[in-house]
Amino acid sequence: MEPVPETWERAVAVVAHPDDLEYGMASAIARFTGQGKQVSYVLVTSGEAGIDGLAPGECGPLRREEQRRSAAAVGVDHVEFLGHPDGSVEYGLGLRRDIAGALRRLRPEVVFGMNFDLTWGESGSVNQSDHRAVGVATLDACRDAANRWMFAEEGDPWQGISAVYIFGGRATTHFVDVGDTIECGVASLEEHRAYIDGLGQDFDPDRFLRDMGGYGGMLAGCEYAVLLQSFSV
Q: What is the pTM of this model?
């Protein structure tokens, strides 16, 4: 594995739901914003179907606000929601168009996305359909954003994306040392209190992130690390 290059200035993270970034990636984002880099969040849904005991009309606004506070904890002040229905995200031209439009507006050099494999690692646990659809669409949208003949209504093409990094997948090519920022990641995850409480089980954000980051650190040769897979577009 190699460390993620840090010569870029602007990045966009694209995921399906509020809290997706906070299960590990936020610690890396805190490192980047601490270096003065600009990182923006694009959430495809508002996570409105994510809490069993809370109706979507009440849940969506609550989770959007939790996400904004969570982003602020790691130095991110731009968070946008694309408004696709939680739990019903479909891969297709509409999803690609909306993500490509966000990339053209925000003009990142690097894009971060989430595992789009059928399962999580070796556990056999099935990855959510929203994650799969958004992950693949993000890769395609990076290429769409550069093609002036695709989605011309979404603005001028943006051809400045040098790499896409996917977290949570099985193949790892790069890592981010988060030894100095893991506490920021924990604080970011803790902002999703309504969602965590809605799980109906004991969950310790600090222990979860330190266990996961410690495993990554063993592979990367540091105390705590976030593991990523690189794609070129």
A: 0.95
At residue 124, the pLDDT reads 79
Residues of the chain short of pLDDT 70, as ranges, are none
Residue 48: DSSP 8-state = T
Cα separation of 129 and 91, whole Å?
9
CA–CA separation, 193 and 198 (whole Å):
8
* H-helix segments, the chain: 25-34, 56-72, 93-106, 129-146, 182-190, 193-198, 205-220
Domain locations along the chain? 2-231
Which amino acid belongs to residue 82?
L
What is the C-alpha to C-alpha distance for residues 106 and 168, in angstroms, rounded to an integer?
24
- d(C-alpha 80, C-alpha 207), whole Å: 29
pLDDT of residue 233: 86
Phi, psi values for residue 185, rounded to 5°:
-60, -40
CB-based burial label for 216 (10 Å; 0-12, 13-18, 19+): buried
Q: Which of 32, 34, 31 is nearest to 11 (CA)?
A: 32
Our CA angle for 113, 165, 75, nearest 5°, is 70
Quickly tell me which residue has 């495993």 as its tokens. 215
For domain 2-231, give the fold: Rossmann fold (3.40.50)
Element of type H or E holding 126: strand 125-126
